[in-house]
Amino acid sequence: MIGDRQGIQVSIAIVGGGLSGMSAAWELYQAGIDSLVVLEANNRVGGRTFNQFHPKDCLSRNG
Ligand SMILES: Cc1cc2nc3c(=O)[nH]c(=O)nc-3n(C[C@H](O)[C@H](O)[C@H](O)COP(=O)(O)OP(=O)(O)OC[C@H]3O[C@@H](n4cnc5c(N)ncnc54)[C@H](O)[C@@H]3O)c2cc1C
């Protein structure tokens, strides 16, 4: 069992909330496993996939 700083215990910890980590979490959740946590160092999930919206309806896709 792995506990986080708030004392919640989970069975699985996924390190990194990029495409791989979020996909793994989704697949596990779909398989009925909801005792998990995604640990992300950044202040957002997505990792290298990142869309930016600019003025005049311009979208840049970075990753
Ligand atoms: C400019 C660019 C264009 C791309 N274009 C394409 C494309 O057209 N098609 C395509 O298939 N792929 C493309 N890619 C590649 C694709 O974005 C990556 O392969 C994919 O995002 C990798 O996902 P990942 O989850 O493996 O890693 P990452 O996205 O790198 O995610 C890793 C996550 O783990 C976190 N992390 C790392 N260490 C720790 C730690 N110790 N504790 C907590 N969190 C941690 C990071 O903050 C990050 O959020 C592109 C990439 C770039 C940069």
Automatic annotation (TrEMBL):
It comes from the Bacteria. SUPFAM superfamilies: FAD/NAD(P)-binding domain. It holds the Pfam family NAD_binding_8. GO terms for molecular function: oxidoreductase activity. InterPro entries: FAD/NAD-bd_sf, Flavin_MAO. This is FAD-dependent oxidoreductase.
